[in-house]
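Entry 12.
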Amino acid sequence: MSGRDAVPARGPLVGVKIVEFAGLGAAPFGGMLLADLGADVVRIDRPGAPPPNAFELIARGRRSIALDLKKSADVETALALLEKADASIEAYRPGVMERLGLGPDVALARNPKLVYGRMTGWGQSGPLAQSAGHDLNYIALSGALHAIGSSGKPTVPLNLIGDFGGGALYLAFGLLAGILNVRHGGKGQVVDCAMVDGASSLMTMFYGALAAGEWRDRRESNTLDGGAHCYDTYQCADGRWIALGSLEPQFHSLLLGKLGIDDPQFREQYDSSRWPALKQKVAEVIVGRSRDEWCAELEGTDVCFAPVLAMSEAPSHPHNVARSTFIDDAGCLQPAPAPRFLGTPGAIQRPPPLPGAHTEEVLRDWDIGPARK
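Predicted 3D structure (tokens):
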């Protein structure tokens, strides 16, 4: 785990310093994104915190310093780190950092150029701000959960929409925007990153379509929610699945040719009243061959096709192999840093650290002095 030496820092964010107060889920993933692109992300762990296992991949890339934030000397060390940082990340409930003496007013007084990132589910204000919650709750409030699933029931998706999409990505985006503002002469500030806000933002296109009368506010009734025959998943003869996205008329026509379907009903591609019958006809054709047979027929064509791969299959798909989308780092196969920078490529800077493993090293490198006792 932390026994492997780190590679020299690589990526477009080399030189950017981030202090991350240890948390769960979205905040660590945001820190990982920044670390993968070269930022020096220092995580503050509590003394005696259990070590991450080697497969806690969202903990990769950091160095760790152990501080007891109930002790005034260690709070002062944390403030000294914040003085030297470009940005910080915390994911406690509103008010916790203030009670620790590490709230944004104190931190920004010490470092007026600090971009103070606050990651929560509900946000720093509002009637639910102090309530517990998880990804599913946040996307439920945004309208996203209502739009996903079968007509009978919303589907519980992986925590990609709230935690990682609406949370971590917006956090990283917000911190970098704040840092850029400071470097153009602006002041440091708080970034209030709420997963419910981010998940709602991700729904912008659909709210626009709803306002225009182009989106039905019920599941499986639209082109992009599994309602249309030409944008859905289908089971094959071997029980595996394929995904079709033949939305444009020319792609739809190519799909029908590949499937051997010559039925005048399909000419009304966007007549939603016909979709259930058209979907049944497509399903009857698809189930006649195995997934591999459909890959041989459709993959690489303009049908807009892909096999539905299991996580165990995805890393070995030829396209992912050609792009090194997954890499083996210290014996653990994992997604590579993204996005790609052709001039200053990112890298997995180091494996998940042991809590406190870099305390003296960080204080020395950041020119803070010896650890306080």
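Annotation: Residues 17-204+326-365 form a domain with the Rossmann fold fold (CATH 3.40.50.10540). The chain has a mean pLDDT of 95.
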